[in-house]
Amino acid sequence: MGILPDRVVPAVVVILLLFCFRVSLVDGDISGDEKQALLDFVGNLPHTRVLNWSEDSTVCGNWAGVACDEGASAVVAVRLPGVGFHGPIPPNTLGRLSGLRILSLRLNAITGVFPPDLLRLRNLSGLYLQKNNFSGPLPMDFSGWSNLTVLNLSGNGFNGSIPASISKLKLLVGLNLASNRLSGEIPNLELPQLQFLNLSNNSLSGEVPRSLRRFPSSAFLGNNVSFPTILPGGSPVVAPPGESHQRPERCQKLSETAVLGIVAACCIVAVVAFTFLIFMLRARRKQDYEFTGPSGKVKMSPERTSSRGEDANRMVFFEGCNHSFDLEDLLRASAEVLGKGTFGISYKAILEDAATVVVKRLKEVGVGRRDFEQQMQIVGGIKHENVVELKAYFYSKDEKLMVYDYHPCGSLASLLHGNRGEAKGPLDWESRKRIVLGAARGISRIHSENGKRLVHGNIKSSNVLLNDRGYGCVADVGLASVMHSLSPSISRTAGYRAPEVSDTRKAGQPSDVYSFGVVLLEMLTGKFPVHSAGCGEMVHLVRWVHSVVREEWTAEVFDMELMRYPNIEEELVEMLQIAMSCVVRTPDQRPRIVDIVTMIENVRRRDSDGHESCRSKQEGGGGVLSA
Ligand SMILES: *[C@@H]1O[C@H](CO)[C@@H](O)[C@H](O)[C@H]1NC(C)=O
Ligand SMILES: *[C@@H]1O[C@H](CO)[C@@H](O)[C@H](O)[C@H]1NC(C)=O
Ligand SMILES: *[C@@H]1O[C@H](CO)[C@@H](O)[C@H](O)[C@H]1NC(C)=O
Ligand SMILES: *[C@@H]1O[C@H](CO)[C@@H](O)[C@H](O)[C@H]1NC(C)=O
Ligand SMILES: *[C@@H]1O[C@H](CO)[C@@H](O)[C@H](O)[C@H]1NC(C)=O
Ligand SMILES: *[C@@H]1O[C@H](CO)[C@@H](O)[C@H](O)[C@H]1NC(C)=O
Ligand SMILES: *[C@@H]1O[C@H](CO)[C@@H](O)[C@H](O)[C@H]1NC(C)=O
Ligand SMILES: *[C@@H]1O[C@H](CO)[C@@H](O)[C@H](O)[C@H]1NC(C)=O
Ligand SMILES: *[C@@H]1O[C@H](CO)[C@@H](O)[C@H](O)[C@H]1NC(C)=O
Question: Dmax of the chain from CA atoms?
Fold first, then answer.
């Protein structure tokens, strides 16, 4: 009676069944609703990076940033960091991915309140929303997330108080609410599994509750909280009551070594404090110092000054140094360790007249007094706003000290890899350009000295400090040639070294250009010059960039943090080309630093009308620094 003859019906059914079976094999994919939820999410949230989420392809294994469970039946992870999302999370989208375990949307510019949908995700174990632009209060009820282990909401604009119901997250291992605008007292959070906590840089007040006192005081920095238990030795980083935010002066700090871990930092402090103590005791025993200075700042009697014997211990000041201090003052000054560099430990010393200087104790000087002094006369003569000024030095058989200007805002290295300088946002593109431009101008000035033969010898991001206008300023000038040669070991420093350099004391100007190229790459990629690729394998940044660029996925090399800033792609690529020209293998083929300065100056954002729109305020107003 039907349209089809009896015998045909079973065949059709079989074919249909086969078809369905085949389709389900090929498609082996999450439910249509989950797919639609993802499409709704990405379709309603504007973003700058292109996502290859094609409606026609299967989600699992094909959609960037989406991971499914073993049976490809549910989405378990969505990781979309640095995609350039802006605007609020569309409601009723991610909340439909009921099997979701990991959600990472860090490093975007998402706005709006905490998305309530996410509280429906019962299986969520890691939520990473740091470095976005969320605002408003935190959710009051956390009871639904019984499986949450990491909650990272740092670097947003959440306000209100910390809900006590966070205590319900019994499996929580990491909680980071730093750099928001949270206020009120910190609730007593009974979280037995918690190993990482950071509540710094908020407006919290009151006492740190007993349950959280096991965490380092740096977890509470930048709040108005008190820490009743005095740590053994009196930790200097406890935020005392009445100090709601860290002084802007404290940009560069021991805590920068947090890259290496707080533990390492503590060890260094202990060792260094001990050496400094020994050094002070030993130095104080000597009473025969002699201080002279070309600028006429003679600290001791003229008879002493004239006896310039080989062993005379002299503090030599340079022209224009208006500090009236002597070695005793330096030793009496309250000193704080700034860091351990390639050539020695640096201290920040606050003199009695409240002037702040950096004192660097050189480890192993490899030349005699005459060569050392000659080099220092050259370096001390450089006065340029992009070169850290050498104010004075001290040379004796046992101690070699260098006294420099203090730059409170940290180095490019600390800004890129460590904590951000205080009271600053992330290192944006304009700031990065200013820093490398300043550094290039400083190196250009250095290369013009000593009959155009002076070499810096140790250019790296930790030697690029920020001057008071946010431009790069080069430190450690000319030390490499008076120190012992550095070992070619695999170290971070080695990542900056030009391939032709076998003896670091004899490097030439083209090798400075190479090192500067590595600094540029580091600035563009946000990666260390030598980084580990797991399994102990070390990857050299230059080689890595070459390999990525060769495969024509240039956009992948750039620091994800830069993806937050729209319309800078062209400039990024231009800067990358400059960097690549600096790191070519053959020294003669590298550009000279004066030309690099011009190239960087020419990297300018053009707005849609095509004319220059971004000669920055600082530069226009400040009467530009030139070599
Ligand atoms: C989308 O990109 C990811 C990696 O980012 C890749 O694994 C996947 O194959 C791509 N999918 C398609 C359909 O091109
Ligand atoms: C949550 O995870 C468990 C085990 O991993 C799984 O059995 C369950 O189906 C998941 N819940 C949802 C709603 O997907
Ligand atoms: C929590 O996670 C575990 C494994 O990670 C899973 O077996 C369990 O079902 C999850 N609990 C809930 C409530 O989803
Ligand atoms: C975040 O939002 C504020 C206004 O709410 C805006 O001024 C700021 O520029 C935004 N930041 C980013 C990185 O989008
Ligand atoms: C949080 O910020 C919003 C504006 O973003 C404001 O309306 C609200 O009053 C603030 N809440 C608290 C508790 O400060
Ligand atoms: C949270 O995010 C910050 C900023 O990206 C990061 O430094 C920190 O390690 C993260 N914490 C956890 C517990 O994931
Ligand atoms: C402190 O938080 C504000 C936003 O609330 C952020 O702009 C600033 O960078 C943060 N400072 C530090 C040192 O993290
Ligand atoms: C918390 O974050 C701040 C930066 O906002 C950092 O200075 C501090 O070292 C961190 N503390 C811990 C314990 O990680
Ligand atoms: C810090 O808190 C104390 C009370 O604990 C209060 O007296 C003081 O005014 C607060 N300071 C600031 C700057 O909020």
Answer: 129
Contact 196, 173 (CB under 8 A): yes
d(CA 96, CA 402): 62
pLDDT digits (tens, 9 = 90+) for 482-521: 887 766 554 556 789 888 888 777 889 999 999 999 999 9
pLDDT at 263 over 50: no
Domains 45-229 and 415-627 share a fold: no
76-94 residue pLDDT tens:
999 999 999 999 999 999 9
Ligand nearest to the CA of 202: 7
147 pLDDT higher than 80 = yes
Angstrom distances, CA of residue 589 to CA of 68, 161, 453, 510, 583: 49, 59, 18, 9, 9
HSE-up of residue 481 (Cα within 13 Å, Cβ side) = 20
386 lines ligand 6 (CB under 6 A): no
Please state, in angstroms and rounded to a whole number, the distance separating the CA atoms of residues 366 and 457. Answer: 14
- Phi, psi for residue 239 in degrees, rounded to 5: -80, 115
- Please give the model's pTM, rounded to 2 decimal places: 0.51
In the chain, what are the domain boundaries?
45-229, 288-406, 415-627
Q: What is the fold of 45-229? A: 3.80.10
Q: Cβ contacts of residue 278 below 8 Å, gap of 6+? A: none
CB 581 within 8 A of CB 591: yes
Task: Output the ligand 5 site: residues, CB below 6 A.
Answer: 135-136, 159-160
CA–centroid distance, 46 to ligand 5, in Å, is: 25
Tokens of 317: 């000041």
Is 386 a pocket residue for ligand 8 (Cβ < 6 Å)? Answer: no
**CATH node for 288-406:** 3.30.200.20
Radius of gyration of the chain (CA): 29
Under 8 Å between Cβ of 221 and 246: yes
Q: Would you say 587 and 508 are in contact if contact means Cβ atoms under 8 Å apart?
A: yes
One-character DSSP codes across 12-72: HHHHHHHHHHHHHHHH----HHHHHHHHHHHHSS--SS-----TTS-STTTSTTEEE-TTS
| Domain topology for 415-627 | Transferase(Phosphotransferase); domain 1 (1.10.510)
